[in-house]
Amino acid sequence: MTSWGAFERDLLEQMPLILAGLVNTLQLAVIISITGFVLGIFVFYLTLSKSGLVRNVTNGYISFFIGMPLIVLLFLMYYGLPQSGIRLNPFTVAVIGFTLNVAAYNAAYLKTAFNGLDSSQIEAATAQGFKPSQIFRFITLPQVLRTSVPALTNQVIGNLKDTSITFLIQYTEFFARMQELASTNFQFFKAYLLTALVYLLLVSVIVMLARSIEKRMIIPSA
Fold first, then answer.
1. CA torsion, points 162, 165, 170, 175, in degrees to nearest 10?
2. Fewer CB within 10 Å: C terminus or N terminus of the chain?
3. Nearest-CA neighbor of 217 among 115, 125, 68, 113?
4. How far is the CA of 128 from the CAs of 119, 132, 159, in angstroms?
C-alpha cells in the first residue's frame, strides 16, 4: 500500500474523532468570539467613565491582557490554579482565558474608533439632555461598531486560529485530532497540509461573511 493509501485509510478510520474535534474547534471559536465581543463592549464602556480610577483600572486591564501571551494565561489557569486548589476543565479554562484576552483586544479596537469620532456629536447630545448611557447606546456604540468591523472580524479569524493552541491544555479540538492522526502513521506533512487547508477554508468563509457585513454597514455619506 502506498503512503497516500495508508494515510487515506487512517484518515477514514479516525474521521469520526477528527470531525468531533472540528466541532469542538468551531464551538469554542464561536463562544469566545461572542463572549469576547460582549465583554469587550463593556470594557470599552468603562474606558469612557468619568471616574479617573475606573478608567485607569480598565486601561490597566486592557494593557495587561494584551501584553500577556495567551498561552501563558491558559497555562497559568490550567496548570497553576490547581496548586491553589482550583481545578477547571480544559473547556472552561479555554473559554475564560480567551474571553479575557479577546475582550481586551476588542475594547482597544473600539477605543481607537471612538478617538476618531467627531466630539461635537457627543457635546450636542449632552446639551440636549441625553444621559451618558443614552449617548453611549444610541450615538457612540453604533458608530464605533460600524467603524471597527474590519478589526473585529480579523479578531474572529484570530480566535479561530488561536484555538489550535488549546491542545496544550488537553482540549481535544481539531488540531489535537490531526496531531493524533500524524502520530499514527508518521505522515506529518500530509496531516499538517490537510489541517492547513481546513483552516484556510474556514477562514475564507469568515472573510466572505465579514465582507458581506461590511457592505451592509457602509455609511452612506462616506
1. 80
2. C
3. 113
4. 14, 12, 41
H-state helical runs in the chain: 3-47, 52-67, 70-75, 90-115, 119-127, 132-135, 141-147, 149-162, 174-185, 188-216
- Read off the DSSP letter of residue 136: I
Q: What is the CA radius of gyration of the chain?
A: 21
- Determine the CATH number of domain 3-216: 1.10.3720.10
pLDDT tens by residue, 89-137: 999 999 999 999 999 999 999 999 998 887 777 778 777 878 888 888 8
CB 88 within 8 A of CB 78: yes
C-alpha grid cell for residue 96?
A: 475564560
